[in-house]
Amino acid sequence: FPTTCPECGSYALREEGDAVRRCTGGLICPAQAVEKLKHFVSRAAFDIDGLGAKQIEQFYADGWITEPAQIFTLEARYGKGMHQLKNREGWGDKSARKLFQAIENKRTIPLSRLLFALGIRHVGESASKLLARHYGTWTAFEAAIEAARDGVGAAWDDLISIDGIGKVMAQSLVSTFAQDAERASIDRLVAELDIEATVRPDVGNSPVAGKTVVFTGTLEKMTRAEAKARAESLGAKVSGSVSAKTDILIAGPGAGSKATKATALGITILDEDGWLDLISDA
DNA sequence: CGCTCACGGGCGTCACCTTT
DNA sequence: AAAGGTGACGCCCGTGAGCG
């Protein structure tokens, strides 16, 4: 990407000696803006079919999409007329229609995905789920972050009381929402969306409630994402790495170092069927 | 029909945040 | 301070859609 940031004259990240400095240009930094957009459409975020890193770079370069909210106004702006999407090189009528449909499909989005998609420092997929579960709705979340702005008081204490959220992450959230330009961009996005509230899972008599589980290898009866969602809905914590705190490793064919480590640590290892048996009563 | 790209599935590393 | 875990990488592969 040829353009450099007018603030730092460089790309989003640069190294100075041992330190990695982060451009503070925010939204006026093209390198950051395009990376944020790529993150926005990535798998665990909005996951819009037909809109990947490559397309984002092109749309950004042409000024068609410069911030997330503009994804949702793309059809209104380029669905018809002289300069419409289906006339672009590499695009035909079919792919254009599919993209517009894929975008419409994601206009309704779970709160946790939206939070992750915002690309706030330190707030990844896991932290986004914690926040969504804690606050439930966008309205509640937004109000809480604003109320926590000064880093003191009940809202701040409540925020850092969430298991897995510390001061660094809390500060990152608060300062993002305190930046006017950033905040305005988020508001424009939210205005385009229908955000689904998060319901706390009813753990009930789940055999795996409170257990930490790790998946490795290939699952044959479900996808990773399905398996993870199922485990979480049963109150299990799904981690990506094996440690002494792991309760169960579910290992499919092709399992590698995680299975070795789990064996060394004496952790219960189940195959996919064993896992399905375990959770079948729940 | 060849090519490019999206996409899903996987592996591992490592800095660094949170918890103990 | 160490342990535990997350987040963000980079890398691999195979498959399938669809443009040209």
Structure explained in plain terms:
By secondary structure, the protein is an alpha/beta fold. Among the domains are: 110-196, DNA polymerase, domain 1, CATH 1.10.150.20; 212-279, 3-Layer(aba) Sandwich (Rossmann fold), CATH 3.40.50. Helices cover 45% and strands 10% of the residues. The chain contains 13 helices and eight strands. The strands form three sheets. Strands 6-5-7-8 form a four-stranded parallel sheet, sandwiched between helices. A two-stranded antiparallel sheet has the order 1-2. Strands 3-4 form a two-stranded parallel sheet. A hairpin with a 2-residue loop joins strand 1 and strand 2 (19-22). Helix 1 packs across helix 2 (53-61) and helix 6 crosses helix 7. It is globular.
Q: What is the class of the domain at 110-196 in the CATH system?
A: Mainly Alpha
How far is the N terminus from the C terminus?
51 Å
The computed structural class is alpha/beta
Total beta strands: 8
Count of discrete alpha- or pi-helical segments spanning 4 or more residues:
13
Biggest sheet strand line-up: 6-5-7-8
CATH topology of the domain at 110-196: DNA polymerase, domain 1
| N-to-C order of helices and strands | EEHHHHEHHHHHHEEHEEHEH
**Overall body shape:** globular
Name the average pLDDT.
76
Q: What is the CATH homology-level superfamily of the domain at 110-196?
A: 5' to 3' exonuclease, C-terminal subdomain
Approximately how much beta-strand content do the residues carry?
Answer: 5-15%
